[in-house]
Every structure is written in C-alpha cells, then in structure tokens.
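From the shared-data thread, chain only:
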Amino acid sequence: MTDGKRLAVVGAGAVGGSVVDLAAEYGHTVVAFADSSSAAVAGDGAGIDAAAALDRKAEEGSVGDDDPDAVLEADYDVLVEATPTTLDDAEPGFSHVQAALERDRHVVLANKGPVAERYADVRELERQSAGEVRFEATVGGAIPIVSTVEDLSPSHVTAARGVLNGTANFILSRMAAEGIDYEHVLAEAQDLGVAEADPTFDVEGTDAALKCVILANVLSEGEREFTLADADVEGITNVPGSALELAAEDGRTIRLVGEATRDGIRVGPRLVPQNAALAVTGTRNIVQLETEHAGQLNLSGRGAGGPETASAVLGDVGRLG
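Structure, as tokens:
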C-alpha cells in the first residue's frame, strides 16, 4: 500500500466535495481545498477540517477565507483537478495542471478538458516534470476503464466502445420502457436530478464524445492527438419514440454508443439487441474493450456521481509512487 498523500483539491462540486469527504478513508490528508471564489488552506501540514469546509460550502457557498490561488501554492503531493470541464483551451483546468507539474507535483484529473482538448500539451508538461498525471475519473466514473487499458497495454487494445453517458441512457431507457417521447422523459429526468437544467452536453453526445476522445488518445500512445473536433458526433434529441417501438418489435433497442479507435471517434444512436451487453438500462455505463489476446472485455458500473467518481480519483492517488 502506498503512503498517504497530501492532497490539494480544486473544485468543490459533487466530485471535489466527495474527494475531500472520503480522502481520510483512503489514508490521505487534504491540505488545501478551493471553489471558484474561496479556499481553505492548512498552514500546519496537519490538513484542513474537511467537515467544516464542506458544511460551510453547503451553508454559505464558500469553503474558507483564503484566496483560491493559494491552493496551487500549498504544500501538497497531489493536485486533484475537479473543476468543470471546458472545451477548446481547457481553462482554467489546464493552467492548474501546468502549475502543479512545474512544481514537480502529481496531478489527478476528474476534469476531462485537459486530456480531451490538450492531451499532447499535458503529456509534454508531464515529460518535463517529476510529477505524473492520472485521469481514470474522466472516463466512466467508478468504472476502471483507463487503468484496465493500461494493464492490458494500449498497443494490445484495438477499440473501446460503449454507453458512456448516464443521462442519455436514462432517457432512451425510459422512452423504450414507457413508450413516451423525448421531451416528456427529459422533463422527468430533470425533475429527478438525472439531467441538468441545461442537458445539452449530455443529450447532444458531447460528454460521451469527450470520453471517447480521451480513450482514443490513450490507445494512440502519443502517435496521434485527438480532440473533440476529430469526433463524429450525433446526439439523441432527434430519436423519436416510434423508432424505439419499431426496434422493440425486432428484439432490439437504441442506445447512444461511442467508439474510440486509433483511427477516430464516433458517437451516435445505434440499434443493439435488447439482451446485448450494450443494452444497459437507467444511468449505468458500459465499455467493451476489444483486445488482441484477451478477447472482448465488458466493464460496467456507475458512470457518474460524486462518491463514485471520487473513488476513481482516490484510486489514481493510490497508484502514484
């Protein structure tokens, strides 16, 4: 077992908050914690009062009295980057990664942006640093997809495909089960908190595509860099209830399926047999890895959620030397 690490956590949403809440259970100490406008930074190396910071965030909207930039200057071993994913320049997440690596610190990402949009830049910074970058939590929440590819060796994995967005999958599952149209199911998903008030990222396929971009980058091992611009993406907003009814008559259903290979990324609604592994229901995710020597491997589980994704972050922390 690795020694406990001192963590600086940037981002106080569901994932960042859960990392702060669970870190001690994994043997680690949170020495700094920031949201977008405030921070709590321990001055004595003993760690912050995690419960107090989380309570203050819930009650007052801020985690502490320090400036957020102070977190990047704290005495930590691992920076956990859990700010919201942004596209194009992947800021401010990319700058946080850069600041940590330039100090020879490790980085664990829950934020997809840096490895989906600036993968080559991140890897170049990593090569120049004593720090390491890990990003299991960026693909499939609690499901150990990236680490499984690493264990198999990316050169022996020919493709990764699967259902990688719980919101879209919930909507398609409910449309098929209840025979109701997209707009009604979307409203239900929003009421249940499964879909965001603005669900565009999920229902238009962007979130699934970003995950596939990351997997394509891992499979390519630096030979080619992929970004979202390289992905062929279609969402579920134009899938009519009648299409699901027709599919059911033929023993099939429709799922938003993403595929990543060394040649490219495709995401879109696909017909799959109702009893197939890809026909997961509700908010579950699944990824199928096609391998040269181990056949097809199916990895399924909870693809989102604060504690679930935090478990992947903390698993990555444990893998660091």
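The chain has twelve helices and twelve strands.
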